[in-house]
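[Meeting: bench + compute handoff]

Bench side (C.D.) handed over the final construct sequence. Compute side (W.E.) agreed to return the predicted structure before the next meeting so the bench team could plan truncations. Sequence as handed over:
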Amino acid sequence: MYYLSRHEKCASEEFLMLRGIPAIISPDLLKVLDEMGHGDDIVIGDLNFPAASNARILVRADGHTVPDMLDAILKLFPLDTFTEKPVVLMRPVSAAAKRTDVQDRIQEVVRNHDERGDSAVENVDRFEFYERAKKAYAIIATTDSGAYGCVIIKKGVLH
């Protein structure tokens, strides 16, 4: 019998034990996503986000980007429809900056998974983002180096 380690890539799906779960989702993250209930928040933090000092539950996702992680998660559960803006981005501090490249990619992922598109996204200042993040069910720490590449999403109802 052949067992895959968490870090091996499988060339064939014959070794996979579950279907429909993106390979980017680790077993630890899958457990966290399953434990979350409707209305729970999860943060996907970039390289600079103080994840370890703010997380109640911390999941490492080294080597992955925030948009890729967001896309994989939204394949597993919907955004909350009882909340007008279930996606929260950190507003860039500089008054000249509107949105960063990584934020554009995050919004593209949201548009691909939620019919509300850009209207599902709220932009808040840095310190409000940090306060909301502290209350989240879990924080995923990526190594994405994109500026202002953090996002908070609220889990919706699975039917």
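W.E. noted at the follow-up: Residues 23-154 form a domain with the RbsD-like fold fold (CATH 3.40.1650.10). C.D. will use this when planning the next construct.
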